[in-house]
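Q: Predict the assembly, please.
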Amino acid sequence: MCGKEQATPVSKSFAPTKSSLDAITRINDDRIINLDQGDPMMFETYWNQMGDKCTVEISGYEWMSYFADAGNLCWFLLPGLGDAIKRLHRTVGNAVTEDRYIVVGTGSSQLFQAALYALCPPDALRPVSVVSAAPYYSCYPQLTEFLRSSLYKWAGDAYAFEEEGPYIEVVCNPNNPDGIVREPVVNRDDGKVIHDLAYYWPQYTPITFPANHDIMLFTFSKCTGHAGSRIGWALVKDKAVAAKMVEYMTIATIGVSKEAQLRAAKIMQVITDSYLDLAPKDVELFFEHAKRAMADRWKRVREIVAKSEMFSLPKYPLEYCHFSSNYTMTNPGFAWFKCKDDIGDCSNLFRRHKILGRSGKFFGVDAKYCRLSMIADEESFNLFLRRLSAIVETNDVPSGL
Amino acid sequence: MCGKEQATPVSKSFAPTKSSLDAITRINDDRIINLDQGDPMMFETYWNQMGDKCTVEISGYEWMSYFADAGNLCWFLLPGLGDAIKRLHRTVGNAVTEDRYIVVGTGSSQLFQAALYALCPPDALRPVSVVSAAPYYSCYPQLTEFLRSSLYKWAGDAYAFEEEGPYIEVVCNPNNPDGIVREPVVNRDDGKVIHDLAYYWPQYTPITFPANHDIMLFTFSKCTGHAGSRIGWALVKDKAVAAKMVEYMTIATIGVSKEAQLRAAKIMQVITDSYLDLAPKDVELFFEHAKRAMADRWKRVREIVAKSEMFSLPKYPLEYCHFSSNYTMTNPGFAWFKCKDDIGDCSNLFRRHKILGRSGKFFGVDAKYCRLSMIADEESFNLFLRRLSAIVETNDVPSGL
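A: Predicted assembly structure:
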């Protein structure tokens, strides 16, 4: 399952390449645009407008202990962050938090690993199969395989899964890379499900119901755009599973940075207060701003794509969003491009035009697909639009493809 | 190698037990004192005196990106933290930083795992053996075994290691739990060495030379007492090893909290400035304060222990400390108690007196040893001294032992 492409995972997932370095340091039209990762810099504009409303101050003598809340199952969770998470979910209506254990993590990737650890018996004779319906998030296989654990193994596309015995299905909803609403597909009694709800926020998708699953993962990165903080959280129904996840976090990193938790709590509280009329309304509400900005980006991309038959993008149904109280469209954090058949390798095409995306083959599907970030900084996004226009208008498939 | 005790690792290492919860919430003489973990709260007094000198302020719009320094091999390391680490080491003289790669981690436990990942070939037929001379830090076996990786396996005491083939030796210097100066003991050509220098700071031990090893791990927790920040760093000689450690960090947690890095950088810069006469001298210098406080605690513990033959503690040679420019004593972060033979289980004895320590059996040696933290908060430490006096003076081995 973990083929050649997994052997050099980082260049295909996260670490900056020579190209992305160029993208950051050289500001001109000729630079390479890195849309491979989902670095959510588009939201920086909003937080700039907010000025010092979310500023946190931490003195040298504060939060020195490993412990944040010794009475809590998750002993390293700041009570203020736990409260902020619950308030935010109640305000948005995207997840049930009552009677749930909150486990904080260094981003949701770490909590994914914690969940695998929690769901796999330490003494099983065979590793538990981990599956997800293709196209699946490219980091799931990597996170499952990189330490060659004998607790679990990556078993690929959930649609094709036929092995007997216990398994774990990861359901990403709305799905990364394609934004589609997802449900479990294996549905056997011996299965456990991890719901990755990183993008279940109003700027990306209609909030159709409060999610109420056994293990739900969220990340601060995609909620507010604060990727640098490395804060994720899990809402967990079962106490024993939550305790095992905390055990994982305890061994792996002895908890989570208190500074990052403090800042995440502050930012979440400011957002929630603004929705509850507890704060002055001199700045647009966060999710309204973010939703408008995402919709605008998607409109512009779709307009360009519609000019030719080179590419297609997924279509999403209009659905009633209980948060917005109206019918809204899905505007995912990634655009899932499909090239027409004679182009072949979609990410190669973009690469030749100095646009870095991630090939469909890392998501368990064909190379005619390519995932491009829709949440990059304004300048990169505008430059991307200009190049995409040029590709589409000239029908310019560079030579050598 | 990974026996029953490893199956419930957390209660034996880090997570708060019902007892430690009591220790935190009940402030009276009857409470249980948790000296099991090395929560470095004794240094809080110093940072309180420093008032706002180390305060950091972070606005909502700052440090949102995953990236901190895309041009650096360690692309998530804040340049300010890299600089602060180098300046601090140059000031203290405890490690060579020239021509070294710095890899930042979520505490040094995470970097230990990153080093294992970096040193073990992904396609080896057999897991690489990981050893450390007993008594070894109780978390090494746990960190090596908890995911049942087939890249590496815990192979126990380095003194007893006779297996052929590649191996990794972890050298903790000065050693946790016993404070002894350590060197590698296996010394074969097919071995790699990880040096854990968590306690190689002037408050714990004489700085006899600038350490100059291939992989050196440090942690902010034990350097300044800021355990809550979860900041560790590795100084790595070989570029390919550093790159693989960065790869581990990229997959496992997509880097390290920027907020924690900012605060660590600020605190290290304040310490270094104070030694370089760049700051006003209205507060004692950090390492002088910390060294004095550690020496004072050790003196008080040794005075009590000397009153009977119930316990013994390691003796350390007086050595020349290049940082202090005089002969100084080792005053480790942990006291490594040895009970006389007829007592038997040392941690049980302490537990009956409501003192939680960690049994020698978790360090690969006999239960007549027990590790107790010497860096707890003032109140806990004073209460510990009173109870230790009572045990020693009454020769009070509680019934039922």
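Chain A touches chain B through 83 residues (CB under 8 Å). The mean pLDDT of chain A is 92.
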